[in-house]
Design goal:
Blueprint lengths: L1 E6 L4 H11 L4 E7 L7 H8 L8 E5 L5 H7 L6 E4 L7 H5 L1 H22 L3 E7 L23 H19 L3 E7 L2 E2 L8 H11 L3 E4 L5 E2 L2 E2 H12 L6 E6 L5 E2 H12 L5 E4 L14 H7 L7 H14 L1
Parallel strand pairs: 1-2, 1-4, 2-3, 4-5, 5-6, 6-11, 7-10, 8-13
Antiparallel strand pairs: 9-12
Helix pairs in contact: 1-8, 5-6, 7-9, 9-11
The structure holds nicotinamide-adenine-dinucleotide.
Nicotinamide-adenine-dinucleotide binds next to helix 1, helix 5 and strand 5.
């Protein structure tokens, strides 16, 4: 039996990962989540509702900032930790940089320390494409320098990768950082553009568009991200590794809105604003390393992913 600890398991990406892990008989899953109110916690409660009576899953409501509480609550010392819990989102991090630092950096430090105490050999960390900042050399490769982040959120993810390197160097903890590229799909966070736009377009309200529509994102469907996480849980080559988990295709904001219009069958009303501080002009993943070392091959093209997302939205 493999004990897996998923922090942030009640959230968007975490709940999809746990759903997939439940399909494996030989794992016990500890979900650790604070159910914090960055967005409506009822969405997180709905994400975990189906697991309540499963002996294979234990749900712990605890805050990573409280290391003693986490240590006491986790009764199955993990063989692998998938650390997804975080204050997420670039723009809100400008409003509360200290809060982001406390959860994303101190929380990660606490969890690495607990990994050392538990003797956990494998630690998978949710990093972000935002660590590349405004690096103009696309597609981005993992060996590009990432010490020029442009938002508090991005800097916390760089810090998490650095902390992980320390623990992989000093202790027998393999640290695998996964740089997610704009993840979308069913249960997507309500603050993210595709969900926010789709909900407003269905209601006939205007969508706020920042900049001239030429910003580009490498949108990744959540089941592809989960494939990459599952592969990283079993990665056993280097003691420290970093992987891009993107879709290897970059889509402009204008194209994204047009594709949503087609999928929803409505025309968007656009409320245009200037570019936002902290936003980056483009994201684009080079997947060579993830393909070779993780066998990561994203399966879901953007238009098909949007259709699946809208089907979920319609069913809510
Ligand atoms: N969604 C994306 O496009 C994207 C892109 C890059 C990186 N990421 C990273 O992936 C991870 C998951 O993102 P998501 O989109 O699923 O976000 P999410 O907000 O849905 O999930 C994060 C979960 O962490 C929990 N959490 C927050 N603070 C906590 C604390 N102090 N203690 C315990 N739990 C806490 C929240 O309650 C939430 O359920 C995050 O680390 C995020 O930074 C996401």
């Amino acid at each position: 039996m493999r004990n897996v600890l998923v922090t942030g398991g009640a959230g968007f990406i975490g709940s999809h990962l746990v759903d997939r892990l439940i399909g494996h008989d030989d794992v016990h899953i500890t979900v650790l989540d604070s159910f914090e109110p960055f967005y409506d916690p009822r969405e997180k409660e709905a994400n975990v509702a189906a697991w309540a009576d499963l002996p294979q899953v234990q749900i712990i409501r605890a805050d990573l900032r409280d290391m003693d509480a986490v240590q006491e609550a986790v009764t199955h010392p993990p063989d692998v930790i998938v650390h997804l819990a975080a204050r997420a989102g670039v723009r809100p991090s400008l409003e509360d940089p200290v809060g982001y630092q406390q959860v994303n950096v101190m929380g990660t430090q606490n969890l690495l320390e607990l990994a050392r105490l538990w003797g956990t050999p494998q630690f998978v960390f949710a990093s972000s494409s935002s660590v590349y900042g405004t690096d103009p050399n696309v597609p981005w490769r993992e060996d590009h320098a990432v010490l020029r982040p442009v938002s508090p959120y991005a800097s916390t993810k760089v810090s998490g990768e650095l902390l992980g390197h320390v623990y992989s160097h000093l202790y027998a903890i393999r640290f695998v950082a996964l740089r997610f590229f704009t993840v979308y799909g069913p249960r997507q966070r309500p603050d993210l553009a595709i969900r926010k736009f789709a909900e407003r377009m269905r209601d006939g309200t205007a969508i706020p568009v920042f900049g001239d529509g030429s910003t580009r994102r490498d949108y990744t469907f959540v089941s592809d991200t989960v494939d990459g996480i599952l592969a990283a849980m079993n990665y056993d080559a280097e003691p420290y590794a970093v992987f891009n988990l993107g879709n290897d295709r970059t889509v402009t904001l204008t194209h994204m809105i047009e594709a949503l219009e087609r999928t929803l069958g409505v025309e968007a009303v656009i409320d245009r604003h200037g570019p936002q501080p902290g936003d980056v002009p483009q994201t684009w993943a080079d997947l060579t390393h993830a393909r070779n070392a993780l066998g990561y091959h994203p399966q879901v093209p953007f238009e098909e992913g949007l259709e699946r997302f809208v089907r979920w939205l319609d069913g809510r």
